[in-house]
Write a structure and sequence with these properties.
By secondary structure, the protein is of the alpha/beta class. It has helices at residues 32-43, 48-55, 59-72, 114-120, 151-162, 197-202, 256-269; strands spanning 3-9, 12-21, 76-83, 86-92, 97-100, 124-125, 128-129, 132-135, 172-174, 187-190, 208-211, 217-220, 226-227, 232-240, 243-253, 283-290, 300-303.
């Protein structure tokens, strides 16, 4: 069984292979030479003779530490080779970390990121999906007979949400599949009102809304600003107007570029979503998509409201 060490640095998780060993075996690290051997094996598998030459140590001393490290489970036999008529053991090390259990304890049920988990509540609750992701149908539908490509943005969003779940159970529906009962649940909505009929129903309740009479420009009732660019997206978390006990989380844009920018705001900048927020309860932010590597694809965003 492989164990892992999870580290969180600058909001990103890094996962490394680890080896759990008994506390009494920690004394194998008491020698500076043993540490040097481990560092050399981390570069490439080696035998005692090669290690002795590189470290300028007697071969018997190297053998001694190799046996101890192997017995402790820190290193393992990679292969054997015949050298000068003798069988030579080549050792390797596979784990950059070791772990020692000091006492029995109740394990964490899932790896928590407090700030992000707070923003995603109640859509994800206790490591379980507590909402429906609603994406626009790719077929022409709704009042405007529009089809959608916003579903692509939902893929990255679903992958991000999945990292907070104990088990893979992403719950999604097309907007054409949402019934009256579904409308009263916690909803994560992807896509603008022209293509997503659920967003169309909620649009009039939004503090930042789409003006269908003026080419779907985005209008903020909070800042009295009008946004016309296609790479503008909005992120709104608020009470569900059809059931005030529930919430809706919207990731919308005038076009796909804006919707993608909105999803990236959560995926890449979740800790900034509540900064400077003008909505008393919830979130209402506007972002502009950025193509950092100039490949024609929105890969980041900046907050403009």
């Amino acid at each position: 069984m492989v164990d892992y060490i999870v580290k969180e640095e600058k909001g990103k998780q890094k996962i490394f292979k680890a080896k759990e060993i008994e506390a009494k075996k920690m004394n194998v690290f008491g020698s500076e030479l043993a540490i040097k051997i481990i560092k050399e094996l981390a570069k490439k598998p080696s035998c005692a003779m090669d290690l002795a030459r590189v470290l300028n140590e007697h071969e018997q001393k190297i053998y001694y530490h190799l046996r101890r490290l192997e017995k402790a489970g820190i290193i393992s036999l990679d292969r054997t080779e015949v050298r000068a008529g003798a069988l030579t053991k080549i050792y390797k090390i596979d784990f950059p970390y070791v772990a020692v259990k000091l006492f029995d304890d109740i394990p964490l049920e899932y790896f928590a990121r407090p700030k992000e988990s707070e923003i995603l509540y109640p859509f994800i609750k206790n490591g379980k999906m507590n909402s429906i992701i609603v994406v626009s149908s790719p077929d022409p539908h709704g009042r405007f007979g529009a089809s959608s490509s916003d579903g692509y943005a939902a893929i990255d969003l679903a992958l991000y949400l999945g990292s907070f779940l104990k088990s893979p159970e992403i719950n999604y529906k097309l907007d054409t599949q949402i019934n009256e009962s579904d409308l009263k649940k916690n909803l994560i909505l992807v896509g603008g009102p022209k293509a997503n009929i659920v967003v169309d129903k909620i649009n009039k309740f939004l503090p930042i809304y789409f003006d269908e009479k003026n080419d779907w420009q985005i209008v903020s009732t909070l800042s009295k600003t009008v946004y016309r660019d296609e790479d503008i997206g909005l992120i709104i978390k608020m009470r569900n107007p059809f059931e005030l006990k529930s919430f809706v989380f919207l990731f919308c844009g005038k076009r796909f570029k804006g919707t993608r920018a909105a999803t990236l705001a959560l995926i890449k900048h979740s800790k900034e979503l509540e900064d400077g927020n003008k909505l008393e309860e919830g979130i209402a932010r506007v972002v502009k998509g950025v193509d950092k590597d100039s490949d024609g694809i929105i890969d980041d965003c900046v907050f403009i409201e």
